[in-house]
UniProtKB/TrEMBL annotation:
This is Membrane fusion protein, cobalt-zinc-cadmium efflux system. It comes from Sunxiuqinia elliptica. Keywords: Signal, Transport. It holds the Pfam family BSH_RND. GO terms for molecular function: transmembrane transporter activity. PANTHER family: CATION EFFLUX SYSTEM PROTEIN CUSB, SLR6042 PROTEIN.
Amino acid sequence: MIRFKNLFIGLILGSIAMLAGSCSGDQSDEKAKVEIQETPPSVSGEGGGKLLISLSEKEKNELKIQTAEVTSNIQNYSLLAPGVVFPAPGHVSLISTPIDGRISAIMVREGEMVRKGQELFKIESLVFGNLVAEYLQAIAEEKFQTTRLERLKQLVEQTISSKSELDRAMSDYQRATAASIASFAKLKAIGVPDHEIETFKNADKIDPSLKIHAPISGSFDQRMVELGQAVNALEQVGRIIDQRQVLVRGYLSPEDVRFVQVGDTVTVARRENGGRGLQSVVSSVNPGLDEENRSVVVNVEVKPENGWPRPGENVRLEIATSSLGEVFAVPLKAVTYDGNQAVVFVKKDALTYEKRFITIAEVRDQFAIVKGGMQPGEALAVSQVFSLKALSRYELISEE
């Protein structure tokens, strides 16, 4: 039985040597020996045992295995991710009504460019009319109390009026001043600018029409009310988007996002046509998972060119990460498969190779990007890979 086993092994090794280009007709009595220390390692290449293949001097000379080093200095390593365009923070504004009323005028159309401070709507409101009346009464009372206080000061100096009357006048003046400040603040709180408040003082009558102004410059994106429509306080009536800056949200897996840092270079390109993209950097990375798609959101602010990209568009992000971590470049020539598991053969010394299982994250050019399970500077077999695979497989069969 032992003789038959040795003969079987010799025939296998002879076939391998012929495939390697050897013209020798003598069948070698020496054979490749596979030393199994433990069970084969897992798919990740971490944990488990090692499978070592030992070659004889003759087999080494016949196979002439070439090797290449593993490197972690991957130039232009990038992660691809889908993205969606949103208005950038500070470059979008929702227009809402500060008080109850009725839309009496609409002075802007959807898609129209507006400037900061431009009038957009008018709202007829009894509440606004009462606020203006309250302000006029407050400044009138403040003016009266100011004059009264100055007169009493003179009378006290001339000992005509008592000090108690002056104290009472001072208290009335302070209350009038506080009321004037409060009424002015109420008007400011509903969006009335200073120059309009000043005009109220010289107006012959009160106009109960509140003007709604644009808080930022940009494109008037949506109009949500019609002329004559009754609106409640804080009801949304429109939206303005400043398209000089947009926010792109990219969606990465939790495994990939650990290689991304704020400041990494990003190329934003069209999802289908590709072509030249816009350059930017990662501005922030959300700390938690997005509940809808179970991905980590990477935020990138971009300045559009020629009207692209627009909010709502789907784009493609290519993030050039500067933090590689345990990521290594393995030549594709060194990779083979054992079932569905990627395998490489690591050179331990001149006659010994280790069969190692790896996990491939991405294939770029002539390299496979591997996460973990490797060390920089390790030498991998890039020729006779199938011969090494056959040696390990058939020796395992013979050992059984």
